[in-house]
Amino acid sequence: MGSDRETRERAATGATATTRPRTRLDQPLPPRRRLVPEWDPEAFGRLSERIARFLGTGRFIVWMTVVIIVWLLWNISAPRHLRFDPYPFIFLTLMLSLQASYAAPLILLAQNRQDDRDRVNLEQDRKQNERSIADTEYLTREIAALRMGLGEVATRDWIRSEFQDLIRELEEHRADGGVVFPAERPPRRDVDDR
């Protein structure tokens, strides 16, 4: 009895004393068995969209019409022992109901997926429009600032008009017997020029 107690005490000591085996954290867990089958929702959605697109085409309506006409003609004109759906055509009604019961949810699923895509596209368009508006407002402010700055900058035409005004004033002053311009004085000869 003493040895059993000692082994229990030894096994239960320490921070890592657990009854379950240790799992390695650097490796993924093995896949678990599931009772319910798994499927990829995106693949199922793409398949439903393809079916819904086909159900909405003229080709589907033509094929459906041909099948129904052949079905009716066979069950009306074939010998009695070869007819599989006599006059009230209950089996045909059942097949059309089955087709409709599968088509409606597939079409709704395809519409929901399209609505989700449209919602994402609209959100992206809204964000793009907000960025465009912000950029336009920024550029408008920049152009206004440039116009205000250009109002204070001397342009070539303004400088030319100012020079022309000064020349007119000087010519008027000279005509009144005023000061002689330095350019009109005879050049002085320097000693080095001799």
Describe the overall structure.
This protein has 194 residues and is mainly alpha-helical. Helix 2 crosses helix 4. The longest helix has 62 residues. The protein is elongated.
Summed up, the helix count is 5
The amount of beta strand, in percent, is under 5%
Assign a percent range to the helix content. Answer: 55-70%
Q: Would you identify the regions where 5 or more consecutive residues have pLDDT less than 50?
A: none
- Please tell me what the overall shape is: elongated
| N-to-C span | 137 Å
Task: Give me the strand/helix succession.
Answer: HHHHH
What is the SS-derived class?
A: mainly alpha
Tell me the total number of β-strands. Answer: 0
Biggest sheet character: none
Q: How large, in whole angstroms, is the Cα Rg?
A: 48 Å
What is the residue-averaged pLDDT?
A: 82
Describe the structure using short key phrases:
194 residues; mainly alpha
